[in-house]
Amino acid sequence: MAPEVDRAFPVRAYGNDAANAPITTRQIMRRALRPNDVFIDVLYCGICHSDIHQNRDDTPSQRTTFPIVTGHEIIGRVTAVGSAVTKFRVGDIGGVGAMVDSCGACTTCRAGREMNCLNGATFTYNSPDKISGGMTFGGYSDGIVVAEAFVVRVSPGVNLAASAPLLCAGITTFSPMQHWRLEAGQRVGIIGLGGLGHVAVKLAAARKADVTIFTTSPRKIADARRLGARQAVLWSDEASMKRLAGQFDLLVSTVPQPYAFQPFIDLLSLDGTLVNVGALEGLHSINGLSLIFGRKSIAGSVIGGIPETQALMDYCATRRITADIELIRPSQINEAFSRVVNKDVRYRFVIDMKA
Ligand code: NAP
Ligand code: ZN
């Protein structure tokens, strides 16, 4: 149903009021539509581990302002458009990832890297809202107002629920593969087989790279081949870690908690790069000398720009790449959070907002 959108209006949302407090139902306000805004009636929203970091306020360098409504893997139907909108019509399906605004004028924005905006991108939640004031509220909600430039098109015919995780898990792992030019035949290792990790395996396999999964969970090993990896190795398997030393062109780490990096740096080949995308603060146990001799790099990467996100969505639609999801109702969010933290998700929870 199209809301009255010429003034700020309430929508139902699921959020929490303090670190570790349970997620509960509430009403939040969405802004009146500006000429370039669209209203998205949210159908599906993925649960990313970033939502959990922010709900629990567990990353000291990125504090949470409560109350918070998380969610940044959003797919929904456009049910109202501002007077100047050209990209969407009422009835279209649109996707929103982790970012809803940026200055649009700096060199990085103009290069399509809005997430690195020199004046600070506005992220989908827990981010100062330069338009309405206060903090932004995300996609665990019945609806969201977003500038059309930050909404990507979703190809007809794709599985909407299983495509939602591409908007964060997908772009966050695709972008490093593009930047570090992962090619067919190259060896890539994906560290951590969760939401990001399992999409990363599919994306790397689609490029015909030789994929190895590094997991802490013995019960996930059987999924390696189905997802497109040649092998899965347990971190604790010292013999395999030794055998694989010096072999990887690229490693993508999706682990959400600090751990010893050195055993993985030892796996990098000459000029190899370990890209961390996990939202962890301390990088532990790194031997500088081990980087020097092989000209190895440690890097980081955050989501991806809007043009690259659109390219990824189109790429996945053409190749039928989606996430492996478990669909839940809004009332199951708290339970889903616990299961994600306990590595008990195969491999992404997606909230069915209409359930
Ligand atoms: P997830 O679904 O929880 O997957 C993380 C996986 O890491 C786990 O399933 C587990 O896989 C492995 N792991 C190893 N040690 C762990 C530990 N101590 N605790 C939990 N997991 C451990 O998380 P996600 O949604 O993929 O997100 C991964 C990280 O990326 C989070 O920190 C998230 O905030 C961050 N992130 C960053 C960006 C970005 O733009 N840079 C975007 C999205 C998310 P195994 O069972 O295989 O060991
Ligand atoms: Zn995310």
Ends distance = 16 Å
Label the overall shape. Answer: globular
Rg, nearest Å: 20 Å
Order of SSEs: EEEHEEEHEEEHHEHEHEHEHEHEHEHE
Q: Which small compounds were modeled alongside the protein?
A: NADP nicotinamide-adenine-dinucleotide phosphate, zinc ion
* Fraction of helical residues: 10-25%
* % residues in beta strands: 25-35%
Query: Low-confidence segments, ≥5 residues, pLDDT <50?
Result: none
Quickly give the structural class.
Answer: alpha/beta
- How many individual helices? 11
Total beta strand runs: 17
Provide the descriptors you would attach to this structure in a database record.
355 residues; alpha/beta; seven-stranded mixed β-sheet; six-stranded parallel β-sheet; 11 helices; 23% helix; 26% strand; binds NADP nicotinamide-adenine-dinucleotide phosphate; binds zinc ion
SSE map:
Blueprint: E1 9-15, E2 24-30, E3 37-46, H1 49-56, E4 74-81, E5 93-96, E6 99-101, H2 107-110, E7 122-123, E8 143-147, E9 152-153, H3 160-163, H4 169-179, E10 187-191, H5 195-206, E11 210-215, H6 224-227, E12 231-234, H7 238-243, E13 248-253, H8 262-265, E14 268-276, H9 288-293, E15 297-300, H10 306-319, E16 325-328, H11 333-341, E17 348-352
Parallel strand pairs: 10-11, 10-13, 11-12, 13-14, 14-15, 16-17
Antiparallel strand pairs: 1-2, 3-4, 3-8, 3-17, 4-5, 5-9, 6-7
Helix pairs in contact: 4-5, 4-10
